[in-house]
Amino acid sequence: MDARTGTGSPPEVPGILHLDMDAFFASVEVRDDPGLRGLPVVVGGAGARGVVAAASYPARTRGIRSAMPMATARRLAPDLVIVPPRGGHYREISAQVMEILGSVVAEVEQISVDEAFLDVRGARRLFGEPEQIAALLRRTIREELDLPSSVGGSVSRAVAKIASAQAKPDGQLIVPAARTAEFLAPLPVSAVSGIGPKAVAGLERFGVHTIGQIREIPSSALARALGPRAPEIAHLADGSDRTGLGHRVRDKSLGTERTWDEDLTDADEVRRRITVMADDVARQLRRGELVARTVVLKLRSPDGTTITRSSTLDQPTASGERLREHVVALWERERHRLRRIRLAGVRATHLEPEASTPYQHELTARSGQWRDLEAAMDRAVDRFGTTSLSRGSTLSGAPGTAQRTDAPSPSEHDRP
Ligand code: TTP
Ligand code: MG
Ligand code: MG
């Protein structure tokens, strides 16, 4: 039995991860030309007015940084290797990185060419704790793309981003919820994304250099130094920020529809067809990492008479079983109206991101657990194939997954 049971609320999971590629453009060039390994490599314009876009870590030990004039970089490292940028190539690799992230984790929010936030709380059942998910992501990127990346994790997106920077290069750092303020305290205020030179100078006037010192000045002083961002930064500094991913729903509805050349006249046949459609819609939902609150059944007879009936679910779901139940119930209610069916459709509406209520997933009964499991299984099967999943052998990043006994069997996925 789970140790959490009966001990009050579960410990808060630092499930917001920030993954950022290390020296991205430069790492790509080194990967593609292994002769450059270990050398001070920069990507950027070589001309008189060129600037450094990316600097390899060997270049950084010489003090070379992004946005530095190339002439300065040359002075710091006479043996500097300058590679002209290949934008399209980096964008392609960026898409491959995001593909890997999306194949393991439901909620991914890309924020630049080489970084993304992830909400991994929904992926825990299959892949383990955030530390293990971070390791799995980094290992997969390393194995499939031969590139280094770093991950930070926290209960807050801002802290996760700070943590990934601390973990670089080629590392990971997950900050437990209770240790957030302690982790931040010694860091310079400039470590906070969005605190630029002006804000740094404003804080210095009050003797504030570290994030910990933010907690020691009155809120009026903080407001003068930071303006409208003051309350947000105060929350960050005391470890109470919980800002996660932006929850964007990509489609308002999704569904499937079919017209037959020969009308369906057999009620059992109609039931079978709409059942298959419900399964298909559930799979689409899971592929989109979405859950639906409403399922809609549409039927049309040869004379054009169309009925559309919807059913609201008691809990948002991506479970094929749930959707089937509801569309079949709608069919049973309406079947007497239409003797011959020319067209049938099943549609899921009122969609939400699957990971938007992760704690509920933890706490609800078996039906709730199904949702997590089905979603995670789909992703795992897509990525690793059924064989490795059933053996559990390649999922070494998630010890504990194989021996779980409270999860239902995955047989529903074996249906074609
Ligand atoms: P970053 O992630 O900021 O930097 P990085 O990946 O080079 O290094 P780090 O290990 O510190 O993350 O930026 C990603 C890419 O964006 C970088 O490789 C090149 C490009 N870039 C520029 O073109 N100009 C810039 O000023 C910066 C900061 C980045
Ligand atoms: Mg980077
Ligand atoms: Mg970046």
TrEMBL record:
Pfam families given in the database record: IMS (PF00817), IMS_C (PF11799)
Main location group: cytoplasm
Cofactor list: Mg(2+)
EC number: 2.7.7.7
Domain of life from the UniProt record: Bacteria
Domain UmuC: 16-196
GO molecular function annotation: DNA-directed DNA polymerase activity
Site feature: Substrate discrimination: 25
Ligand binding (Mg(2+)): 20, 114
Annotated active site: 115
Keyword Magnesium attributed: yes
Catalytic reaction(s) noted: DNA(n) + a 2'-deoxyribonucleoside 5'-triphosphate = DNA(n+1) + diphosphate
Subcellular location: Cytoplasm
Cofactor note: Binds 2 magnesium ions per subunit.
Role summary: Poorly processive, error-prone DNA polymerase involved in untargeted mutagenesis. Copies undamaged DNA at stalled replication forks, which arise in vivo from mismatched or misaligned primer ends. These misaligned primers can be extended by PolIV. Exhibits no 3'-5' exonuclease (proofreading) activity. May be involved in translesional synthesis, in conjunction with the beta clamp from PolIII.
Subunit structure: Monomer.
Protein name, as recorded: DNA polymerase IV
Organism the protein comes from: Brachybacterium sacelli
Originating gene: dinB
